[in-house]
Write a structure and sequence with these properties.
It contains 11 helices and 10 strands. The protein is of the alpha/beta class. It folds into 2 domains: about 5-120 and about 300-335, Nucleotidyltransferase, domain 5 (2-Layer Sandwich); about 130-295, Nucleotidyltransferase, domain 5, CATH 3.30.420. Strand 9 (about 265-270), helix 9 (about 275-285) and strand 10 form a beta-alpha-beta unit.
Length: about 350
């Protein structure tokens, strides 16, 4: 396919095995095999099980993506794969598959940062507008990323302990709610009232986050009420927790916008599916000259389309890796070219 830049993207950082194919920026296929139903039995992702399921699924999603896109491996220009952050065993599966294809078909291997993928997922809706503020909120990460231009990432705020999504899941578990907990808390909070007093951690004036104290406060409060035999109104607890958790994000976003002159705010990551966060951020900036980009729900969960999208830009910059490439579960987005 002369003149075509065809990127095959692979994602396996957590509990979705995914493969996507783009052709000169057009998304031809985006195949995802989710493990949520398996991990739901355990109340969270079991890393060893996730790795084994990735092994079972990776070949299938690659074949299906090629079939859906009507593309042969010989047509593929480059392979973009998630190198990190994520679960080390899960990352290894995707990377080994990508390295194998790179070797067999003699095509470039492009390492992609998972969070860069979440940010660039917004480009399937419309081009990013710079400078921008990316609000990255997920199960494993909570960051504010300032971007002056494409592939220019500066972390200006990050969590010092738990990520917002992790705290949602742990609070949901203590309330007896199913995994993934964020969906259930968001749903129940719609009919709840903010009646429980909870702390807002980290008052240091920075753009950083801390969710450990909030999570622990909810857990302790629930246990204390149970020991006293008092009824816990789950909807009210969900509302009280979500108000504080999302309020912390909004506080930092408003502060960041004052310190950095941005033209756009983009939401990224699994927690960007949260309806309360979406409505709060739209409301906060509706009468300003700052655009707010809300990703469609399919872009919020882990997928390979977002990895292929970043791969397109990295391919233009010739950011390629050798077959000695290894995974990095704690890879920082600012170091996306260091591997």
């Amino acid at each position: 396919m002369d003149g075509h830049v065809i990127i095959l993207g692979l994602e396996s950082s957590c509990d979705e095995t995914a493969c996507a194919i783009t052709d000169n920026g057009k998304l031809l296929a985006n195949v995802i095999s989710s493990q949520i139903d398996v991990h739901r039995k355990y109340g969270g992702v079991m890393p060893e099980i996730a790795s084994r399921l990735h092994l079972e699924n990776v070949g299938c999603v690659i074949n299906e993506a090629l079939n859906v896109a009507n593309v042969k491996m010989e047509d593929v220009t480059a392979i973009a794969v998630t190198r990190g952050p994520g679960l080390i065993g899960a990352l290894h599966v995707g990377l080994q598959a990508a390295k194998t294809l790179s070797l067999i078909y003699n095509i470039p291997l492009i390492p992609v940062h998972h969070l860069a993928g979440h940010i660039y997922a917004n480009e399937f809706i419309k081009p990013l507008k710079f400078p921008l503020l990316a609000v990255v909120v997920s199960g494993g990460n909570t960051e504010l990323v300032y971007m002056k231009d494409h592939l220019n990432f500066e972390i200006i705020g990050e969590t010092k302990d738990d990520a917002i999504g992790e705290s949602y899941d742990k609070v949901a578990r203590v309330l007896g709610l199913p995994y993934p907990g964020g969906v259930e808390i968001d749903r129940l909070a719609k009919t709840g009232k903010h009646t429980y007093k909870l702390p807002t951690p980290l008052h240091d004036g920075s753009l950083n986050f801390s969710y450990s104290g909030l999570k622990t406060a909810v857990i302790n409060l629930v246990h204390n009420l149970e020991q006293k035999g008092e009824k816990i109104i789950i909807e009210d607890m969900a509302k009280s927790f979500q108000d504080v958790a999302v309020g912390m994000v909004m506080d930092r976003v408003k502060k960041a916008v004052k310190e950095y002159k941005v033209k756009e705010i983009v939401l990224a990551g699994g927690v960007s599916a949260n309806s309360y966060l979406r409505s709060e951020i739209v409301e906060a900036f509706k009468n300003t000259d700052i655009d707010v980009e809300i990703p469609p729900l399919w872009c919020t969960t882990d997928n390979a389309a977002m990895i292929a999208k970043v791969g397109e830009y990295l391919y233009k910059d010739k950011v390629f890796a050798t077959l000695n490439l290894g995974v990095d579960p704690s890879w920082r987005i600012e170091d996306f070219k260091k591997f």
